[in-house]
């Protein structure tokens, strides 16, 4: 485990993480710090616990909104994807059929 010293809303925190998780954890720290500063500046909240709760609600809302968005919001058309998968299957079948005669 690797120890990280980070700052969120002007407070120091020590975190532990696996080396391969360091980059994403630092990105999460930056996101939380930015959102907490935004909540503090955009409201009359002063207690860090209330700012943390409001920030957690914002992040949870964003996540739920993204997870519940249909695939079309991601620029994907399901029928188009199915067609492409079928086409890839046909190409593979055509390429592998001559190989079967070798065995």
TrEMBL record:
The protein's assembly and partners:
Homodimer. Interacts with FtsZ.
Q: What is this protein called?
A: Cell division protein ZapA
Keyword entries, A-Z? Cell cycle, Cell division, Cytoplasm, Septation
Q: Which Pfam families match?
A: ZapA
**Which GO BP annotation is one of this protein's?**
FtsZ-dependent cytokinesis
List the InterPro entries hit by this protein, alphabetically. Cell_div_ZapA-like, Cell_div_ZapA-like_sf, Cell_div_ZapA_N
**In the UniProt record, which is one GO cellular component term?**
cell septum
Q: Which organism is it from?
A: Parvibium lacunae
Tell where it localizes.
Answer: Cytoplasm
Q: What does this protein do?
A: Activator of cell division through the inhibition of FtsZ GTPase activity, therefore promoting FtsZ assembly into bundles of protofilaments necessary for the formation of the division Z ring. It is recruited early at mid-cell but it is not essential for cell division.
Gene3D superfamilies recorded for this chain? 1.20.5.50, Cell division protein ZapA protomer, N-terminal domain (3.30.160.880)
């Amino acid at each position: 485990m690797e120890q990280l010293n980070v700052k969120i809303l002007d407070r120091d925190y020590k975190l532990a993480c696996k080396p391969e998780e360091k980059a994403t954890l630092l990105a999460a720290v930056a996101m939380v710090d930015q959102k907490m500063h935004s909540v503090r500046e955009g409201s009359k909240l002063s207690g860090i616990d209330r700012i943390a709760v409001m920030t957690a609600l914002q992040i949870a809302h964003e996540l739920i909104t993204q997870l519940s968005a249909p695939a079309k919001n991601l620029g994907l058309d399901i029928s188009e994807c199915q067609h492409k998968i079928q086409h890839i299957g046909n190409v593979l079948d055509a390429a592998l059929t001559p190989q079967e005669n070798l065995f």
